[in-house]
Amino acid sequence: MRKITTLTEGWRFLKAAIPAAQAVEFAARGEAVTLPHTWNAIDGQDGGNDYHRGTCWYVRELSAEETAGERLFLEVNGAAMTAEVWFNGEKLIRHEGGYSAFRVELTEKLQEKNILAISVNNEDNTTVYPQKADFTFYGGLYRDVKLIAVPAEHFELLKDGTPGIKVTPVVDLEKMTATITVETWHNAQSVDITINGETKTVERCAEFVIENVHLWDGVDDPYLYTATAKLPSGDEVSTRFGCRVFACDPEKGFFLNGRSYPLRGVSRHQDLKGKGNALSYEDHAADMAIIRELGANTLRLAHYQHAQEFYDLCDENGIVVWAEIPYITMHMQNARQNTLDQMRELITQCYNHPCIAVWGLSNEITAASAVNEELLENHRALNELCHRMDKTRLTTMADVFMLEIESPILEIPDINSYNLYFGWYLGELEQTDEFFDEYHAKYPERVIGFSEYGADANPAFHSSHPEKGDYTEEYQALYHEHMLKMIEQRPYLWATHVWNLFDFAADGRDEGGKHGENQKGLVTFDRSLRKDAFYLYKAAWNKTEAFVHLCGKRYVNRCEEETEIKVYSNREEVTLYVDGTKVGSQSGKTVFRFRIPLLGEHLIRAEAGDVSDTMCIRRVSEPDESYLFNKAAASVTNWFDADDIDPSCFSINDTLGEIRQHPQAGAIVDAMMAKGASERGDVADAVKDNPALQRMMGRMTMLSLLKQGGADEESIKQLNRILQGIKK
Ligand code: GCU
Q: Is-contact 288 318, C-beta < 8 A?
């Protein structure tokens, strides 16, 4: 049997880019830390884009007991982003990629006294992804480091961090049988492979047939089998696997085990307030509990390989997963090999997980890179690698909203998904519907999904007139109400993933009243608060736990004569009480809206059968300024009411397309757009040369475009005065 020792205690941490010999010499002066660890747990989450990025060292002595065994290997499960392992003064390995496991043999280098020193670097570079993205590139040994002692005859441990065993189930849904091919890698003469109590002694590979197969059936019944392989030396490995059939139809979307199974879920980054990405199993399990409460049946594990423990949790909970590498935002000429290395390790290490349905090649890679032959070739190479290593899964990629739907890059992966933020970063909510309808009409034979969509919300901000860019909980809820309906009307979307289930760290951000956080989460970064939008999806997706949720609990002080009381529930009838008096009942689905007069302080109660929710709100005479984030933007919107406008003339309420139909008005806005574009450089080219984007912008109002472009209030007023001088 192999002996596995997790090296949690006894490490010394040095925040210093020094030679290995000095790291060992000065180790005693280092900070005593336990693993998992990141040095950016705090500065990576507080804004300023100034978190420490450099080389740091982790040094630890290995005891005689820990190094006992015939062959000794070190396993590092997560060193971000580039690591070097030095052992007794000698560099044994360098690993480039912050999200996959790697191993190295120590046996031949063992001495009387054994000192392990691991350097980790998270600096900018041009050869290791990710380099440009909207999340903190935490540095550290942020997952477990282990010693593995095995007999002389053992399973392969070195190649790409392999588990040593690969299980490929092929299900025949007609016969309800599964043919299981088990491959092993080792240096012995034979291996005993066991599944379901049946053992076969073979050289390396064996095939089993399971009759009356118990399917891995998503969240309803995620049944797992176990395959075990044992060598005569006693070394043994095992892996769980699931028997299921995934399929995608361009018109009907995703199928699981032959039945329609629309993948409706969220994305997750692997970090937590105050801990960075150095998460414990309990942290992972707590996230999974929230995902199950939401009722999601799919997860996009963005933008990199996640911890094995988390894929295990997805296997156990029946969550269908989109796994991907961090080939993101900007293509780098000298990092082609790194994309292939990271993809090869992802597939080698995660192949056996039944939860994984697709391999993601890249994310928004054309956001800052042209679609040229080099980019296309890198994607073709990745796509071919995936298909060579895994005959059972599809490839996909997440495309940025500006990517022309006619782009050749979309023809490389088996299926596609788009990241669209209409109604948040730009444009109007309805442009999402139009985008997919246009794409699906033009390419009815293609499978398309919705890989990212979201709106930031700070639970401190509220409004009875929510609008794009105000960071209120109310706007985020409205945004998602629209998207939920859009999705329900388009069953051809193979998968949809809210961006994001949790607020997460992006140290370069400073918006929405928070420093260093992306607040598109349905749940706050510390997991302490579920925003209203969380309950919208719970009402739509959770079929097991009846609940009713009053929106606006944090919107207590309301400066209005009457107010909307919105309720989310997965029950079909909701009754509302104000100060103990029934004010109404509504039958419906998911969203229930009431309007009540505000006379003073009120106790509001919503009931749906045996479940209920309560809150207190009050009438105030002046707006509560603490609910306002973007006061400047709010003032722009407020001064601008329809009765200020002469509808017989053009105004900034007209769309760019409408205005451009008038030569004089069109010339004015084009001159202004050209001036704005020249200030933006290459992104402007991406816009100018992108008919799809031009079409989208044509449908946007000038006010929307101007606010999107960050125009100040005076410029907006100035342009409006000019346009109001031009008769339609
Ligand atoms: C992009 C990107 C995400 C990012 C998101 C956002 O689509 O893929 O990584 O966090 O937009 O801007 O919130």
A: no
SS3 content of the chain, % helix, strand, coil (to 5): 25, 35, 40
- Return the bridge partners of 586, or none: 574
**Residue owning the nearest CA to atom 12 of ligand 1:** 134
Q: Is the CB of 520 under 6 A from ligand 1?
A: yes
Total count of residues recorded for the chain: 728
Dist CA 56 CA 231 (whole Å): 40
Q: Please give the angle made by the CA atoms of 450, 454 and 460, to the nearest 5 degrees.
A: 165
Tokens 């410029």 sit at which residue? Answer: 715
Can you tell me the distance from the alpha carbon of 728 to that of 721, in angstroms, rounded to the nearest whole number?
Answer: 14
Q: CB of 84 closer than 6 A to ligand 1?
A: no
Residues sharing a CB contact under 8 Å with residue 103, sequence separation 6 or more, in sequence order: 73, 74, 75, 76, 148, 157, 158, 161
Separation of alpha carbons 327 and 365, rounded Å:
7
Q: Calculate mean pLDDT across residues 536-564.
A: 98
Lookup result for tokens 């001064």: 639
364 C-beta closer than 6 A to ligand 1? yes
Of residues 575, 617, 580, the one with CA closest to residue 599: 617
- 424 contact partners, CB below 8 Å, separation of at least 6: 454, 455, 456, 468, 469, 479
Instruction: State which of 499, 500, 520 you would mutate to test the pocket of ligand 1, scoring each by most atoms of that ligand within 8 A of its C-beta.
Output: 499
Look up residue 121 and give its two tokens. Answer: 């670097």
Give residue 419 CA to ligand 1 midpoint distance, Å. 8
497 lines ligand 1 (CB under 6 A): no
pLDDT digits (tens, 9 = 90+) for 150-194: 999 999 999 999 999 999 999 999 999 999 999 999 999 999 999
| Rounded mean pLDDT, 345-367 | 98
Query: At residue 392, does pLDDT exceed 90?
Result: yes
> What ligand 1 atom has the least distance to the C-alpha of 452?
7
Q: Which of 183-187, 638-642, 720-724 has the lowest mean pLDDT?
A: 638-642
Three-class HEC string of 587-641: ECCEEEEEEEECCCEEEEEEEECCEEEEEEEEECCCCCHHHCCCHHHHHHHHHCC
Dist. CA 335–CA 125, nearest whole Å: 10
Does residue 628 contact residue 634 with C-beta atoms inside 8 Å? yes
Between helices 308-317 and 281-294, what is the axis angle to 10°? Answer: 30
- Confidence at residue 631, expressed as pLDDT on a 0 to 100 scale: 55
The residues near 81 (Cβ < 8 Å, ≥ 6 apart) are 96, 97, 98, 120, 121, 122, 128, 137, 139
DSSP 267-297: EE-S-BTTTBT---HHHHHHHHHHHHHHT--
First and final CA of the chain: distance in angstroms?
84
267 beta partners: 300
| pLDDT band with cut points at 50, 70 and 90 for residue 688 | low
Q: How far is the CA of 660 from the centre of ligand 1 (A)?
A: 31
What's the pLDDT score for residue 110?
Answer: 97
